[in-house]
Amino acid sequence: MENEKVNCESDKLLLLQMEQGNKAAFNKLYNKYWDWAYSRAFARLGNSSQTEDVVQNVFVKIWLRRENPISNFQAYLHVAIRNQVFKVIAKEKKKCPFIDNIQNFQEAGLLADRGILWEEFHKEYQSHVEQLPPKRQKIFRLRFHEDLTTKEISSALGVSRKTVQNQLGKAISQLRVSFSHLFSFIGLIGLW
Asked: Residues 89, 77: one domain?
């Protein structure tokens, strides 16, 4: 109990110093709470790269908004991490429904009576992926065939992470349009 009170008092002093632009105070809070914040985010995301991004973004926002008083840093950090995690999860759900459909179809293709349909679908899928512009195709394959993160792809190709995300979005949109008729057909024949 005494230790919690001392901890809270030291946080308040560090927060006050941070509000005045003291980077050392911010760094102390960052070092003190990084592991705690990381474990909270990782428990929900299960992806270390995404978790690092979430925690880093939250701390960047805290520094950028340092003039705004925070009375309880741990509670504030908890809510900020939770909200950022929800944003990541919502964005992921919006981003890849096309890929989820492909994976579901692939699982359905494992059944013997659907093997021929799976082969036809796979050929058409490969054909459409090969029609993507070369850079977009490479990014798409690295992300969805080799399961690299956007951070890993940007590093490997020497492009910004935003470029990777934009190219993935365009690739998915292009393929979604190409396959819209096929997914309607798959639904009609009951493969899902």
From this structure: yes
